[in-house]
Amino acid sequence: MPLPHQDVIVIGHGSGGRMTQDLIERIFKKYLFNPILSEGNDFARIPASSGSLIVSTDSHIITPLFFPGGDIGKLSVSGTVNDVAVSGAKPLYLTAGFIIEEGFSINELEKIVISMAETARSAGVQLVSGDTKVAEKGKVDKLFINTTGFGWLPEEIRIGGQYARPGDAVIVSGTLGDHGIAVLAARGELGFETDIESDVAPLNGLISRLLENVPDVHVLRDPTRGGLATTLNEIAAQSNVCITLEETDIPIRPEVKAACDMFGFDPLYLANEGKIIIILPEKHAAKALEILRATPIGELSTRIGFVSDAPQKRVLLKTPIGGTRILDVLAGEMLPRIC
Amino acid sequence: MPLPHQDVIVIGHGSGGRMTQDLIERIFKKYLFNPILSEGNDFARIPASSGSLIVSTDSHIITPLFFPGGDIGKLSVSGTVNDVAVSGAKPLYLTAGFIIEEGFSINELEKIVISMAETARSAGVQLVSGDTKVAEKGKVDKLFINTTGFGWLPEEIRIGGQYARPGDAVIVSGTLGDHGIAVLAARGELGFETDIESDVAPLNGLISRLLENVPDVHVLRDPTRGGLATTLNEIAAQSNVCITLEETDIPIRPEVKAACDMFGFDPLYLANEGKIIIILPEKHAAKALEILRATPIGELSTRIGFVSDAPQKRVLLKTPIGGTRILDVLAGEMLPRIC
């Protein structure tokens, strides 16, 4: 007996019974089908490989769900793919946990799942295990998505925040702050029209091209929540080094700068969802820039600073007028629900 | 400069900046510390093993957060450990994604994290990657926790819902419906006092003892959302078999039965969080019961039915008066937010 066609999510879609099964068939399996997912057990079985298993998890609670350049579906796949890829591993698999508000539009859910499927395809990852929960109206804000990603890391690769060394160059793969300002614009809070789009994208293709062509990459990290400044502080602390940035070299779109000036935001603390920081020996920096700039996603890659031994655990910013100031980690919160 | 001591979660705890770091140090690392988690990258590096990698994900949105016999912390670890363990794999690692409501008590969060740590220790699993998000007051109901679990499955083990065969016996490891009724009681909806406690517990110890002592286990599955009836229907469909239950043999506590009668619930559809269904050749059933009953968690294990070849994809219930009725999957939802 077919179930009556529903236009919105109802509590029964989270029951684990027939309505859940119907939603899985109608939306999730339709777009995210693959042989591992189709076994129908509560677990997924994946062929093991040599090397280490790399794992990363992230819950996504962004508002609004759709924004210029992306949506929560693209974000939830890209964010976790990137967290796995910055280890040097090839991301291969994802799990997804959906928490949906009663009354949420199934049409919108379908758009988001299609976006997840397209992003997963472009990143070369498969969804292998999923979960759907429904909370009563007013108990969750529309839709939250947790993704956990994994891949295999060859034994010889050692990339991480603890490996920055004095004499290294610091590169960023493009302009900063685009995601934060695009989301702010989508919330209708900018007060003016803008063409700024979120940079949200999977970066594993860019990263593997880099690693295939440039030896001895020490650190890769995506400056998401907390932005460039917070991320570099984490690296400086993990590696016991000082990182110095040249303010004039940091690529920021004029529209992003203008919006930041208006709102009192610092673009160095704004979230990015499609950028990586690369730290590697100075002698390989030119080659890395050449490789990165040859891709559409990395064409604005720039060397923005260097690593030295002291003062340890500090990030310094050299200003255009010749001064130097300490860039601390983000203290409070500029922009909640950004990822 | 130390941060001012907070008693409740504020938006800044989800910023990815200093307040997030402070919360991680003060609560999460304090109880969940291990060498893999401590590397400080956004990914975890885990030594690979032979065999297959088993993965399962689950988001937990139970209300209330604390209930007789457990809390969301114990539930979020047990639920995912059990989903990995029913593959026959040894669960070893977990990720955890927290979505917390602004204003939530840090003292309660700490209790929940302690409960997660204790449950993880008793199950022998390590938390290797975490994420914390904070949503504004009213945008999430107190606390949701997603966990994703991992373990390695030896090549020779093949256990799954697709392996039930005619001639198999069906065993359940204890009484049904305790979790559902305990949560209902904790919501104050029963209208009378009861001693019923949730059965929430990690079952990997019980499962490994079973697999070490009994050959040829075909199916293991934990009957959570949708209960025994829905879970057996899934298995009957995956394996193209018929499963027949003897109603009088199904172990249900009198208090659970009484509560079900009052509310018009069927205990066969109530969620369990510490029970497994075991399906294996009839000739091994006695040995399996002996092993299960020798453990405190499995002492009420019972053979409740058998597998035959037809009618395919059906679950039948033989009633005490000699009739037989079809047990279908859960259609709507009896009890939302149960796990």
Which short descriptors sum up this protein?
homodimer; 339 residues; alpha+beta; 60s Ribosomal Protein L30, Chain: A; Phosphoribosyl-aminoimidazole Synthetase, Chain A, domain 2; 2 domains; seven-stranded mixed sheet; four-stranded mixed sheet; 8 helices; 24% strand; globular
Question: What does this protein structure show overall?
Answer:
Two copies of one chain form a homodimer. The first copy, chain A, is α+β, with helices and mostly antiparallel strands and 339 residues long. The first copy, chain A, folds into two domains: 34-154, 2-Layer Sandwich (60s Ribosomal Protein L30, Chain: A), CATH 3.30.1330.10; 161-326, Alpha-Beta Complex (Phosphoribosyl-aminoimidazole Synthetase, Chain A, domain 2), CATH 3.90.650. Chain A contains eight helices and 14 strands. In chain A, strands 9-11-8-12-10-13-14 form a seven-stranded mixed sheet. In chain A, strands 2-7-5-6 form a four-stranded mixed sheet, covered by helices on one side. In chain A, strand 5 (90-101), helix 3 (106-123) and strand 6 (126-135) form a beta-alpha-beta unit. In chain A, helix 1 (18-32) packs parallel to helix 3 (106-123), helix 2 runs parallel beside helix 3 and helix 5 packs across helix 8 (285-293). Chains A and B meet through helix 1, strand 1, strand 2, strand 5 and strand 6 of A and helix 1, strand 1, strand 2, strand 5 and strand 6 of B.
